[in-house]
Write a structure and sequence with these properties.
This protein is α/β, with parallel strands linked by helices. The protein is built from six helices and eleven strands.
């Protein structure tokens, strides 16, 4: 039976060698090679891997091609979502035109995998977070809420619903945001998200059930670069 995995924040840098992640700690050393090895040990060709953002350090789409090819060579289908560091994601039409076979980009729509549909958006810093700045963040926060609505409204009622976000939908103290309120009418089974790094942020990331929905924090470094099993069909 096919399975769905998730892993965020890959921060690949095959064309940007000065962005090696080990400057953020020894646990990032050779992380791309370790990711590939664990991926091949875990994921099968019939599976789907959700990648909710911060895929590549590239600034331009052409520079991201090496990272996309790296992922394309790994087993399974892949569903990509834009993160805050994915500056190369210049527009979803352009991105989709260069993706390797079996790789898909999610933006303002949904993706169907057997009996499962996946919706989602990047998200943004939430008002409940200590880092929220009204003058700078409110507009982007509301725009992402609109994008999430566009995606959720395309879900079919007869499928299992999953949601991808890049930013966490809870504050660092566990307070829920308006993103979570938006999910209530859609019977969402599981939400996956990433973005957070460092032991303190990992420890504060909400994982568990809230209002009947499961929330899974899937940043790559928190997972030790092993894709997390989300659902077995």
């Amino acid at each position: 039976m096919p399975r769905i995995y998730a892993i965020a924040d890959l921060h690949l840098s095959h064309s940007v060698p000065d962005k090696a992640m080990d400057v953020f700690g020894a646990h990032w050393a050779n992380h791309a090679e370790r990711l590939a090895a664990s991926w091949r040990d875990t994921v099968r060709e019939e599976d789907l891997v959700l990648i909710p953002g911060d895929i590549s350090w590239a600034m331009y789409l052409g520079d991201a091609l090496a990272d996309l090819a790296f992922l394309g060579d790994l087993p399974g289908q892949k569903l990509l979502l834009r993160g805050n560091h994915d500056f190369w994601w210049s527009g979803v039409t352009k991105v989709r035109s260069v993706l390797p076979p079996g790789m898909y980009a999610l933006q303002n729509d949904t993706f169907r995998f057997h009996s499962v549909e996946i919706a989602g958006t990047r998200g943004w810093t939430i008002p409940q977070s200590a880092g929220f700045r009204e003058s700078e963040d409110r507009r982007l926060f509301e725009r992402e809420r609109q994008r999430l609505n566009l995606s959720l409204n395309r879900l079919s009622p007869d499928t299992v619903h999953l949601v991808m976000l890049h930013y966490p939908p809870f504050s660092e103290t566990g307070k829920p945001s308006a993103f979570i309120e938006q999910l209530a009418p859609y019977n969402v089974r599981t939400v996956v998200y990433g973005h957070l790094h460092g032991a303190k942020a990992h420890a504060a990331a909400f994982t568990g059930r809230y209002n009947g929905t499961e929330y899974r924090f899937v940043a790559a470094d928190a997972l030790r670069f092993v894709p997390a099993l989300i659902l077995e069909l």
